[in-house]
Amino acid sequence: VFFRDVAPRSGKPSGGEEVRILGSGFRALGTLDIRVGPKPASNVGVADDETIVFTTPESREADQGHPIDIFILTNEGRSYVLRGAFSYRRGQTDSPGSELQRRL
């Protein structure tokens, strides 16, 4: 198993974005649990031998603005840590008025 990259490497604090972990040997991992920092990701799956896909959870405020780890746990008890592989952009909200406030 080899981990090459994470794409994208950052996302919005509200979560809900698809992220891909790129590398090789992923089919051998079986069923996976992924955590972004301390929070569980959703829609986790092995797309092919070179791609793991998941949806980001909502971030904790403490995790915004700096790199956090991605934890990959297999159903056989193996674990992998991608140190500082993802970051949530600081202070972005998805409310309709927030874009206007940022421009003012």
Topology as a string of helices (H) and strands (E): EEEEEEEEEH
What is the straight-line distance between the termini? 48 Å
Number of strands: 9
Task: Determine Rg (CA atoms, Å).
Answer: 15 Å
Mean pLDDT: 89
Low-confidence stretches: 94-104
Largest sheet entry: 5 strands, mixed
Number of helices: 1
Q: Give the overall silhouette.
A: globular
Determine the structural class based on helices, strands and strand pairing.
mainly beta
Which helices and strands appear, and what pairs or packs with what?
Elements: E1 2-7, E2 10-11, E3 18-24, E4 32-36, E5 39-40, E6 42-48, E7 51-55, E8 67-74, E9 79-88, H1 96-103
Parallel strand pairs: 2-9
Antiparallel strand pairs: 1-3, 3-7, 4-5, 4-8, 6-7, 8-9
Structure summary:
With 104 residues, this protein is mainly beta. The chain has one helix spanning 96-103, and strands at residues 2-7, 10-11, 18-24, 32-36, 39-40, 42-48, 51-55, 67-74, 79-88.
What features would you describe in this structure?
The structure is a single chain. The protein is mostly beta strands. The protein has one helix at 96-103; strands at 2-7, 10-11, 18-24, 32-36, 39-40, 42-48, 51-55, 67-74, 79-88. The protein is globular. The chain starts with a strand and ends with a helix.
